[in-house]
Amino acid sequence: MMSMLITAVLATGCSTGSGDQPAPSNGSSTTPTVNNGDPAKLRRLVPEGETATLKVWRPTHTSIGTIIEKWNDTLFNKWMEEQTGVKIEWVTPVSGTEADNLAMIVSSGEYPDLFFDAGGVYPTGAYGLLKDGVVINVADYLDRLPNFKKQLEKSELRRIESYSDNKELAAFYRYSANDELATTWYGILMRKDLLDKVNKEVPQTYDEWHDVLTAFKNAGVEKPFLLNSTGFPKLNVFTGGLGFGYMNYGGGTVPFYQVDGKVRYAPLEDGFKSYLMMMNKWYAEGLIDSDFLSLNSLSAEFAAYGDVQSGSMVAPLSVAKVVKQLNPDAGLEFVAVPHPVVNKGDKIHIGGSPTTTVSAGMQISAKTKKLDLALQWADLYYSEDVIQAGNFGPDPSYYEQDAAGNIHFNDNVFANKDGFAIVDMMTTIADYPVITVNDRDINDELLLKQGQMYDEQNDHAYTISSKLTMTDEESKVYNSIMTDIIDYVEEMQVKYILGIESFDNYDAFVQHIKDKRIAEAMAVYQTALDRYNAR
Amino acid sequence: MKELVANYKRHKMIYWLTLPVILYFIVFSYLPMAGLVMAFQDFSPRKGFLGSEWVGLTNFVEFFTSSNFIRVTKNTLALSLLDLLFGFPAPIILALLLNEIKGRLFKRTVQTVSYLPYFLSTAIICGLIIDFTGSSGPLTTAIAPLLGKSGNLLGMPEMFRPLFVSTNIWQMVGYNSIIYLAALSRVDTDQYEAARIDGAGYWKQCLHVTIPGISSTIIIMLILNMGHLLTVNFEKVLLLYNSAIYETADVISTYIYRQGILNHDYGYSTAVGLFNSVIGMLLIITANYISRKYSETRLF
User: Fold this and answer.
1) pLDDT value of residue A11
2) Which of A122, A386, B250, B262 could form a disulfide with A483 if both were Cys (CB 3.0 to 4.6 A apart)?
3) Is the pLDDT of residue B199 over 80?
4) A82 shares its domain with A57
């Protein structure tokens, strides 16, 4: 009797794995398509009276659950469904579980028809999904994708960043219009009211920074400078003036930077040591927040930004406005401060955000039974009408067009009466532009000006592209060596700043890194970089 | 077999009552053990169990020869042993003390207040600790004269173990004392009378009547705790530690967690988990054996 019960339980447990079987259909021949007219223009893909459904995996967004219920509700998606006749069934994992959800889907072997933005979630990126056989190589189908092909071939940059070393296309890449970088939204903020109080000018060099922070301290500010829990500000901001690029905390995790095509690792360079020594001095003098070690979560950081006792910080530029709104009586005023440099007039070569104009977008599953429909549907995103709708939405009440033909969102978005966040509002109107008009979500002139200040100082010459790919053997070597080294350096860097470790042992520290075979990892990375540069 | 059937006939209801529990353990604890095969594979979720490459003991060797193996094992054992040394007697002492209180209102209040921290989640407790040990936190300022230095307590490697163990005690002592209070209530009051007649004072009574009376409970709890020696509260360490105090705070589970971020190495993490479980099992079997030999109490 017991064994029967057990078997019954086992049976139920096992059968839930098989899930929903996709409706059997033999390839694209049974999917109805309409092919009259120009294949590049926006049109119905499905004959009147019939429906076709595509299943699409897509991470969720803060606007879902607040303004809208599901992805189907955005104005853009509703419009696309009307125009093309293709219904979309969105698979949206709970926020925070995207990586696990995607891993489960991949290992189950049952894929949806398309993936949106899976590259940012999958451990080996969009290209990893291609190598693992989950998605198709778009390059094989380029002839059937007139709109995408046109956009892809518009510039050399797009070609280099989209194609892999083996001339494959892992995804339908998203490009920024005119291949311009969006304005940096991350920078250095300093309390203007405190600067005025101590009668100092905005600091330009590291020495001037020291003077200003000391003045803050003497005026009774407890935390003249907020530092990250790792000892390094995020996104390589603030450290660029010392001539090295490092872990890009808050962005990707490429620990290397490049000078003239040669890979370098910051801890082996002098700039790294001078940074640690400077931070050590500042910490000993009480110029750095003495609790910086516990700022290891976003919520802790944001709490610190609004603290009256915080004098300066590396943060998103929009924080200035938000903090002021949250603390109207505290008299907080912020000013964006340029990257500090060693000598006035120096340029910065790395840092800030974002550093790429090309990102992986839609990917079509290798197992889809509706390949033809999926290809046509994805291609339509790159047609002119859809590009505009993707950026500003299909509803003209939300945007204005000026004399020069430029379109901007109007106050229905920016000053919407329900008080929703601009980004959320924007997403419910136009959620997936494949050619993105930069800065469409910023109407704050000040933010734009501040961001431009950083972009003028920075030529991004030391950045290594995130589209660099390594082969399987290279990855194995790289991972097995670098995990250990990164862990070791992260531990030591904080100890040097705190003064727990003395700088007398610095040479031993560098030697230790070399003993851990950093040269091998750098060599492997150099090969990958050379391949990238040869594209 | 015949005995089992006879026993079943006599205690039918108990068997039926236990059935859901047995099923729970079979489905959620025993069946998933099949997944342990990952420890011996170079596991990739895409290839699954049947497709991943078999690597035998490579994952284990990689762990044992990794640069921080000794440090993290030492830290794990240190934290667990300290927890055992100080955290195990604390609930017993609290139970003994509570047992002596005659005023019911006072006793109830103390019990309730001491149970409360148990119900707070680890995240809340750690948030409190981080706040209290900040450079201007209340705990820091209170301890500063004793320590001779001030500053963020969680930035000092030598403070981690005392903080960890003492906050564990604070959180768990009330709840853990419940089982001992229950055991104390079962001690025969006649024995106390007999002891008093023999002239035993309070301390002697405690030593010769109370503690032997609850000794079986103490030994069972001790054996059970031995199994956890290598698993320190991962969440708590993760929330409290930072790179400055890795030398005392980095334990096996947090080290593996960091290793996993770049590698997504499921096989490696499973291997270390398996290692932990095997050691725990050996410890329980040994403790049970010793207990069986030298006392009448045994777990199995």
Assistant:
1) 43
2) B262
3) yes
4) yes
Domain assignment present for residue B232? The answer is: yes
**Residue A525 shares a structural domain with residue A396:** no
What domain range includes position B157? 57-294
Per DSSP, chain B holds a count of helices (H) and strands (E) of 17, 2
Shortest CA distance to B40 belongs to which of B63, B24, B19, B57? B57
Separation between Cα atoms, residue B201 and residue B198, nearest integer Å: 9
- Residue A45 sits in the same domain as residue A163: yes
Asked if the model's pLDDT at residue A253 lies above 80, the reply is no
For residue A312, the enclosing domain spans 186-353+464-533
If DSSP codes are grouped into helix, strand and coil, which group holds residue A389? helix
Do A166 and A258 share a domain, yes or no? no
pTM, whole model, 2 decimals? 0.80
User: Chain B residues with CB inside 8 Å of A248's CB?
Assistant: none
**Is the interface score ipTM higher than 0.85?**
no
Q: SS3 for A316? A: strand
Whole-angstrom distance between the N-terminal and C-terminal Cα of chain A?
Answer: 67
Count of alpha carbons within 13 angstroms of residue A497, beta-carbon side: 28
Q: How many domains is chain A built from?
A: 2
Other residues' Cβ atoms within 10 Å of the Cβ of residue A403: 5
Residue contact B152–A230, C-beta within 8 A:
no
Question: Which residue in B23, B152, B258 is closest to A293 by CB distance?
Answer: B152
The answer to whether the CB atoms of B243 and A253 lie below 8 A apart is: no
Q: Does B61 touch chain A (CB under 8 A)?
A: no
A64 and A203 within one domain: no
Provide the token pair at A210.
């020291």
Let me know if residue B123 belongs to a domain. yes
**Identity of residue B140:** T
Tallying the residues shown for chain A, one arrives at 535
Give the three-state DSSP class for A268: helix
Q: Give A299 or B99, the one with higher predicted confidence.
A: B99
Within a domain: B103:
yes
* Tens-digit pLDDT profile for residues B44-84: 766 777 888 888 898 899 888 888 889 988 999 899 889 88
Find which of A483, A488, A513, A517 to mutate to test the B interface (most B CBs within 10 Å of its CB).
Answer: A483
CATH of the domain at B74: 1.10.3720.10
Nearest in space to A351 (alpha carbons), one of A451, A443, A283, A276: A451
